[in-house]
Specification:
Blueprint (H helix, E strand, L loop, with lengths): L4 E7 L6 H4 L8 E7 L3 H11 L4 E5 H7 L7 E10 L6 E4 L14 E4 L5 H14 L7 E4 L21 E3 L6 H7 L4 E3 L13 E3 L4 H12 L4 E8 H6 L3 H20 L12 H12 L8 H17 L9 H4 L9
Parallel strand pairs: 1-2, 1-3, 6-7, 6-9, 7-8
Antiparallel strand pairs: 3-11, 4-11, 5-9, 5-10
Length: 329
């Protein structure tokens, strides 16, 4: 008998991927081993350095800026396991005199890695929605809460910017709390948030603003995509379609289980109210896959990468992702 192709996939422990993880959904022709790894940067590092997995979650900004290189060993599927609104991820020291976004000009702002997708989106939103001149910000790269070596292999932009590493043994969280940094942006909240009145969000009403941003732009910012090793794709071109369909099916299952009202699946007291709100804003699926449904999202991120010096030109999205029949690509 024909045996299924054994493949390993590393991705976060997401509800939308749960059915794949536990085998409730099996991709056609694939014997999938799903490694649920909490820290995305660990997945990216292991994939980029040692190509440890056949498929893996990957930083979307890193993918879009590297895919053009002749030696780049991965191709992405139009699947986006991580999306996150970012207005709530700008943290300020209240003593720094930052009342609004424009006040960040001329200030010292921490960021874990300048090139991370969250930071690219936040800077893009500050510039395009609030007119912030990014060139006037002094950037400081460093670990958020735990001192130690930073992985800066992620790359710096091609344009001249004011950027330096924080001193050895220091963290962004400590420096923000002490006032050495005036603000911080990034993918995670610093440990000092909630422990002192001095640290606040730039936009305390971020949920309202994010909802307005979605209503104005139709963008729910994409953070990560899923890449496959190019040689796996070349040898088995059918795998992309098979995995895509399975990931769509897994997400569908997660949404229907989440909406079951007989008993609450998640530890969220107002889950059902949130679900109603989610349907009001997003319609049936808050998390579409495929290029068609995400075109503006991806083109905006591509433009931000060009503006910020990480990419030279926009490339057609159809060239960047595996073709999928029936996904509007």
């Amino acid at each position: 008998p024909m045996t299924d192709l054994a493949l390993t996939m590393a991705c976060g422990p997401y509800d939308r991927m749960e059915a794949l993880r536990y085998g409730a959904v099996c991709p056609q022709g694939v014997d999938l081993r799903y490694l649920a790894i909490q820290d995305p940067t660990e997945i990216f590092g292991r994939m980029l350095r040692h190509r440890e997995f056949d498929l893996a979650e990957m930083s979307c900004s890193r993918y879009l800026s590297l895919r053009g290189r002749p030696d780049y060993p991965f191709i992405a599927l139009p699947v986006f396991p991580s999306k996150l609104f970012r207005h709530g991820f700008i943290f300020v020291n209240t003593k720094a005199g930052i009342q609004g976004p424009k006040d960040m000009e001329g200030k010292k702002v921490g960021v874990p890695t300048y090139s991370q997708t969250a930071a690219v989106w936040i800077r893009g939103i500050l510039q395009s929605e609030y007119g912030v001149d990014l060139d006037r910000i002094h950037w400081y790269e460093g670990p958020i809460d735990v001192p130690g070596h930073q992985d800066l292999a992620a790359g710096r932009p091609d344009k001249r910017i004011s950027i330096q590493e924080v001193p050895d043994g220091q963290t962004l969280s400590e420096m923000l709390e002490s006032g050495e940094l005036h603000a911080m942006i990034g993918a995670r909240a610093p440990g000092c948030l909630g422990t002192t009145d001095r640290i606040q969000r730039l936009f305390p009403n971020y949920r309202e603003l994010e909802r307005q941003y979605y209503s104005d732009t139709g963008i729910f910012p994409i953070m990560h995509t899923v890449v496959m090793r190019e040689e796996v794709h070349q040898a088995n071109p059918w795998v992309a379609q098979s995995m895509y369909k399975a990931m769509v099916e897994s997400k569908k299952m997660c949404l229907s289980e989440m909406k079951f009202t007989g008993a609450m699946r998640y530890t969220l007291p107002w889950l059902y109210d949130d679900l109603d709100g989610m349907d009001d804003v997003f319609g049936g699926d808050p998390w579409p896959y495929g290029i068609a449904a995400n075109r503006k999202n991806l083109e905006t991120l591509q433009q931000y990468l060009i503006d910020q010096g990480f990419a030279n030109e926009a490339r057609p999205l159809e060239d960047l992702f595996t073709p999928i029949v029936g996904a509007g690509t």
